[in-house]
Amino acid sequence: MCFQMKRFPFYSRFLILISLFCLLGCSGNEKQLPELAEVTGNVTLDGTPLADAIIDFYPQSSQEKSNSRTSTGVTDQNGKYTLMYDNATPGALLGDHLVRISKTDGGAEVAGPEMLPAKYNEGSTLKATVTKAGPNQIDFELKSK
Asked: Staple 64 to which of 9, 59, 96, 97, CB 3.0 to 4.6 Å?
């Protein structure tokens, strides 16, 4: 009986310590994300896939602007992109977006002179609507002139 009494305090402390770690791990440190939808698509320039272009979706409604997070993607060699809400979360906010597409001669990772007309980036006239919580396919067919 003496032996069991000595073990009881050790196990009690061990169980309390494990419980505290579990509570701290589940304490709500996870970020609250708004409703997002997967957005993918293709970008072409004069009918040819546009590689290494940066695609930005800027939310336009007042509710979306309060979240004010731009979703961004980069086209691959085939002109395909997938938007990311942040570094770990794919998607874009539901609703209307102003879209800017930019490409420099140094590619997506190097600053340089813009290769696309301003109507696709600085003075963008591109719009897109993310309409559903499922996958959204939004393609852009750009013209060099």
From this structure: 59
pLDDT number for residue 69? 85
Tokens 């440190």 label which residue? 29
Q: Does residue 86 sit within a domain?
A: yes
Its pTM stands at: 0.74
Sorted by sequence, the CB contacts under 8 Å of residue 112 that are 6+ apart come out as 104, 105, 106
Domain span at residue 64 reads 36-142
What's the average model confidence in pLDDT over 71-92?
Answer: 95
- Dihedral, 138, 51, 55, 114 alpha carbons, nearest 10: -140
Q: Which two tokens stand for residue 37?
A: 């939808």
**Does 20 fall in a domain?**
no
Is 97 inside any structural domain?
yes
